[in-house]
Amino acid sequence: MNQLLQTENIIKKFGDFTALNEVSISVPEASIFGLLGPNGAGKTTLIRVINQITLPDSGQVLLDGKSLQLDDVQHIGYLPEERGLYKSMKVGEQVLYLAQLKGLSRNEARKRLKYWFDKFDIGDWWGKKVQELSKGMAQKIQFIVTVLHEPKLLIFDEPFSGFDPINANLIKDEILELRDKGATIIFSTHRMESVEELCEHIALIDKANKILDGNLQDIKRQFKTNTFEVGMHTSDSNGLQKELASKFDISKANFKSLEDDLKLNIQIEPNDSAKDLISYLSEKAEINHFVEVIPSASEIFIRAVENNKK
After folding, report:
1. Please, are residues 269 and 226 in contact by the beta-carbon 8 Å criterion?
2. Are residues 19 and 70 in contact, defined by beta-carbon separation less than 8 angstroms?
3. Pair (82, 185) in one structural domain
4. Lowest-confidence pick of 21-25, 144-148, 215-219, 234-238
5. Are residues 70 and 154 in the same domain?
6. Cα dihedral value 240, 243, 246, 249, nearest 10
7. Domain range for 258
8. What is the mean pLDDT of the chain?
9. pTM to 2 decimals?
10. β-pair partners for 187
11. 3-class secondary structure per residue, 92-140
């Protein structure tokens, strides 16, 4: 898979504080890449380096295999977490101005803006001032400005902030469509459910260091704990639970239990097999549910950051 963007050993310090410590990431072409980390980890600094807002102390950024140049700004669309629209300026005047800053002619900008305003059904916002819009409405305008020049690399920092669930889902669908049309997207968020839905690859930064990266499904497999979610029908749920607790590491699963049903997460030793577990349990009760527990992106995030504290 071709890598559209690469950062190689990026170091950035602010006085005695190290914001990035030899951070390297590779973002595959036409993919959605999750850039994750706790507050203050260094994510925003890395994004600012990629956008050439901040220069690294050492290391380099490659776009399409070539060292990033000043005029590459035309190939990048950046939606920052802190939005930057002029509140007292009318929406139409502002989006035309910003589109021309990205290299579009006034006529081409109008054509593309009409497409997006029609698509979002917001044509009546053209003459409004930004300060008259809600936060979510202003977010839509900023999203349009970010994608209007059809850049090959899009960087979204908390793109769902301020949106209700319906509009968040609308923007999610647009992000997926942009990916399907060939755009490469860096997606930074604290909403792990969005990471699960959108991201194929992730990198996790903590305390200025990259501590995890790769294909999300591969990482999930690495973090598996040989745990299985089991549902059983038995006439003695309390007795069976005590028997299983003496043999396995168990915890209650997250769904309701009926009086004669036992719902557990059972962790077995690495050398033991699921087949042997099923065979053992089938002698004790009627199994009606058996599935391997795959860690969520949120669980992986927490475990990786906790491990980095040790």
Report:
1. yes
2. no
3. yes
4. 234-238
5. yes
6. -30
7. 225-293
8. 91
9. 0.88
10. 34, 156
11. HHHHHHHHHHCCCCHHHHHHHHHHHHHHCCCHHHCCCEHHHCCHHHHHH
